[in-house]
Amino acid sequence: MIQLRNVEKSYPTGPTQTWVLRQITLDIPQGDFVTIMGPSGAGKSTLLSILGMLDHSWSGEFDFLGEAVHRLKPKDRVELNKRYIGFVFQQYHLLDDLTVYENLDIPLSYRDVKKSERAAIVAETLDRFNIVAKKDLYPRQLSGGQQQLVAVARAVIANPRLVLADEPTGNLHSSQGREIMELFTRLNKGGVTIIQVTHSEENAKYGNRIVDLKDGWIVGGER
Description:
Blueprint: E1 2-13, E2 16-28, E3 33-37, H1 44-51, E4 59-64, E5 67-68, H2 74-84, E6 85-88, H3 100-110, H4 115-128, H5 144-156, E7 162-166, H6 174-189, E8 193-197, H7 201-204, E9 209-214, E10 217-218
Parallel strand pairs: 3-8, 3-9, 6-7, 7-8
Antiparallel strand pairs: 1-2, 1-4, 4-5, 9-10
């Protein structure tokens, strides 16, 4: 599903370059459940943004579902993202001027799901995540944990082929966190590829392999 070859990212600082990622080479087959771990500043979230085709300023080769992403224009990368990828951001990235219901509806509209079908899917998702009572509220009216639940719901509502999750349970109670990780496990068993960034060894156990990053490098063997 994903092949990365010598992917690197840096930015200029005066006369020199500051490296964020170095020589990242990684294969992730369809149906994998990968955890990316490492200390703060290791490049974890940057790698996730590249995989999600949200960061376009990098070098190297990236193939996704047979598409050479490194050769695509940014707008074509965005289309791939909309069609196949669900993203759980660390800072939620909900649209402030849309209600919970409308935030959940957007990924379905990107995939050309009929309006009548979208209504049923959103209703089922609101029920599954126990947020029916929040459907007409705006993100600013929700707690951090509630925004996190909505963000996870938005990421999975359109049955993406790939879910990218940046600290997906960071603001949730432990019981809610377990529910989210168990949801990811069910999705994964159904064939969805999951890549999560986490500091939690407990969450890492839900996946089938761990990639450790340090100072932008993949360090040691996968575990």
